Amino acid sequence: MIDSLDDIQLLDRFKNQNDKNALGILYKRYTHLVFGLCFKYFKNEEESKDAVMQIFEKLMMDLHRHEIEYFKSWLYSVTKNHCLMELRKRKSEGVKEKEYEIFVHTNMETEEELHLNNEGKLSLLEEGIKELNKEQHTCVDLFYLQQKSYKQVCEQTGYSLKQVKSYIQNGKRNLKQYIIQQNDAKSA
Fold first, then answer.
1. pTM for the structure as a whole
2. By Cβ atoms counted within 10 A, which residue in 33, 65, 164, 188 is the most buried?
3. Buried-exposed string 117-141: b where 16+ CB fall within 10 A, e elsewhere
4. Could you tell me which CATH number the domain at 97-187 has?
5. What is the pLDDT of residues 52-87, one digit of tens each?
6. DSSP state, 2?
7. Domain residues of the chain, as ranges?
8. What is the DSSP string of 46-96?
9. Are the folds of 2-89 and 97-187 the same?
10. From CA 78, how far away is CA 23, in angstroms rounded?
């Protein structure tokens, strides 16, 4: 009977009755999707399995603090953010090809859409960042290339958190448009 409940009913049951079986059903429903997304980022089965466990353990606490209308979409965002935070922790010197590909796949549509060749990816990204306005350039550089947290970007720039998030979001959008335009120009 509990298996037939929809996601929202299961969430309500978990939140109001602390019914861990309800969370278990959500786990069964979405484990494969969470694993698939983690594997996309980590390209390693064991790391992806570990991430799935960490995400669902975190959910047990987070679900009580959030009002969720669309569990699947919310879970996707939580998973994506978890993976990005893990990758940010593994920071190494400079921007590497793999990190660039993760940036492109995460923040842009698809590599196929962009039609970028491997050798030109990094230089095209750097050119695009130079084309951003000063605020966007600074925030995108600090957040993605220097892998600073939002708080650190705020501290270094003096911008508010809202401004930093806006500059990063607009910078990503403008960078995506720049790369697509450059790709279209090369294709023409």
1. 0.48
2. 164
3. eeeebbebbeebbeebeebbbbbbb
4. 1.10.10.10
5. 999 999 888 888 788 888 888 889 989 998 998 888
6. G
7. 2-89, 97-187
8. HHHHHHHHHHHHHHHHHTTT---S-HHHHHHHHHHHHHHHHHHHT--SS--
9. no
10. 16
